[in-house]
Specification:
Elements lengths: L1 H13 L9 H27 L1 H7 L7 H21 L3 H26 L4 H26 L7
Length: 152
């Protein structure tokens, strides 16, 4: 919830005002959102390592190297989160994170929802991953536009 709500902070801080101005609070909201999103992503990455066997069990059977893939995604999340937090290559980190969540949605969540369409747990997981994909690209969008919010 922290990661998804942080995207709302970024949107609130970067939404154009009727008069076209950007206030101090707008920049603060966007910056708080960026920092909270980066922290949440780092925590997700660390969690991948703390529950490595569980995460590896979610890797589809047709993909080889389940432990390797679970470790790789955990490391990628940590790198992306640090990138977003430090603003060093933050646009690239957020874009890559969005690609990672897009791949999760397509390869993991869609097949699981199709296999159990009445499972609220599968739908919830799929929609969270979809939201994280969008949240990641909200970070990219703000940085790419050179908006009044601090560059990610």
């Amino acid at each position: 919830m922290l990661a998804l709500s942080s995207a709302a902070f970024i949107l609130a801080g970067t939404s154009p005002r009727a008069d076209g101005s950007a206030g101090r609070w707008d920049r603060a909201l966007a910056n708080i959102g960026r920092v909270l999103f980066g922290i949440a992503v780092v925590v997700f990455g660390v969690d991948h390592f703390l529950a490595l066997d569980l995460i590896a069990s979610l890797v589809p059977a047709w993909m080889p190297g389940d432990i390797f893939l679970a470790s790789l995604t955990g490391a990628a999340m940590i790198v992306a989160g640090v990138s977003i937090l430090t603003k060093w290559m933050g646009e690239l980190g957020a874009f890559g994170l969005g690609i990672l969540f897009l791949l999760f949605v397509l390869t993991l969540h869609v097949p699981r929802v199709l296999a159990a369409p009445r499972s609220p747990d599968e739908w919830s997981s799929a929609l969270i991953a979809l939201g994280m994909w969008g949240a990641s690209w909200i970070c990219v969008s703000v940085a790419a536009r050179g908006h009044h919010a601090p560059a990610i």
